[in-house]
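Appendix B. Extra example for self-study. Work through it before the problem class; the solution is given directly after the inputs so you can check yourself.
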Amino acid sequence: MAVYFQKREVVVPGQLLAEGRYRPSVGTYDDGERIFAAVVGLAELRGNTVKVVPLEGVYIPREGDLVLGTITIVAGNNWKIDIGGPYQASLHANNALRRPYDDDISRYMDIGDVVTAEVIAFDRVSGPYLSMKGRGLRKLTDGMILRVSPAKIPRIIGRRGSMINMVNNQLQIQTVVGQNGRIWIKAPNIPILRLAIKAFRMIEDEAHTSKLTDRVNQMLVEEMASLRDEEVDSSTDEKADDDIEVISDIPDEEETTEVEPEEDEAQVEEAESDEIVDPVEEETLTESKDEEDVDKNEEDVIE
Amino acid sequence: MSPEVKPDFLISPEGLRVDGRRPDEMRPIQLEVGVLKQADGSALIRQGKTYILAAVYGPRELHPRHLTLNDRAYLRCVYRMATFSVPDRKRPAPSRREREISMVISNALQPALFLEEFPRAVIDVFIQVIQADGGTRCAAINAASLALADAGIPMKTLVPAVAVGKADGQLLVDLGDEEDKYGQGDIPMAILPDTGEITLLQQDGSFTREELLEAIQLGINAMKYIHELQKDALKRAYAKRVSELDEDDDEDDDYEDDLETDLGESDLMEE
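Solution. Structure tokens for the complete assembly:
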């Protein structure tokens, strides 16, 4: 009975972690007595369970996961959905639409649409299969999708949602976090949206550090304060040029290229370069129109 | 480059090799992990004048589909030499030698990987030789196993590899180009260091039984050393990322957020 690593130590594949009656968990393998690391990551001991929290990796579906996906093919009664990772998912119309539904299911959801769905089945031989029967599972019609590394998703959610709730409350935005490393963000305006992206990138980059929630919180408070200052400034000045200025004055502009909703082509390129983002076309619609759309879709799609 | 001439001797009267090494001395090895941004995992190795980049993508969807394996991931290695990697321009078309080495590398790495965790998918390993100076297939295995680890692919262990050869009747560890060309033989090998399983063992030239056994022993010692270098390079790459960020924290063991979370209801928005 012995443990050969410090708490949250960086371990490499093949490194001996523990001997004796410990239970091997994710990121490890064992030869009956000894437990070794199988991936690069941070070793942890919880109770008598040894695991390695991976720092890299693609999305491997698990039953029960909430995922965000893009429809790539409409095939008869199925939608084929790209959820990232090596496996393409399929969603059967019975799991998304209320009966009776039209034979042409592309009337309800078509190629390019982005949906939230749950993984209902996945094993070595078949799947993953998705379902959209469930609370809040729907086609997304506005907002944007941010891609992050799937290995960092637990950190973005935080313990019992502490991190994501904090970000939502600070920025007054709506989000859906998919286990497959995609985050849907709906923000009232572009500066807030950029701030949200900055926050998520920060969590992603610093995922393995302590007190992260506090630091992200602090960053958001400061940035929100400076945003409000700028708003005050601009409203006292004259109008015309100011809108542009407000946008260009936002600190830390690295992210700006990623967001502009009108430039579809640019976005497609961005998406290919893996930085970001599935453009959700309807992004440019006005708020009121959006809501109508959402309502319609919900009638169609959910139960 | 001036035309190559055969050196007068491969072992000097003092018992040293052409580049001044002792018979059991390796060339200086430099390993770097995570050098490419686009790839899921990457590594670079400099072993003497040999200079190789390895990039890993995946696991990802396998095309063409007919290569799909239903019980495990397909490991696709591609070993390529740059046209400028050798003194005579290397013709850019994939050669028979490159295809053989690709397969040999794939076979050497496969026993170390948990491929059965990703059925139907593919793991792509691209190996580019920037500059060749002997021992490229072994250096390529060293780099590729680091790149695989960097990509987060589960594996039993890193895989070290080395070539042991013979020149002027003397066994030499980690052959350089001239020793390879003008020597009497060459045995590239790779092992899984924890179990001692041999995953690559080739030979050209002729060795007696005793020489072969001694060569393998020399190789195993060298590979143990390379394995330490590999572990060190990997830890260095990741420890750097962790410590850069951790500096201003007073190291507090009480983590506020748990890395393991149930998928809370919190992320399903109430509309």
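Self-check: Residues 66-140 of chain A form a domain with the OB fold (Dihydrolipoamide Acetyltransferase, E2P) fold (CATH 2.40.50.140). If your reasoning did not lead you there, revisit section 3.
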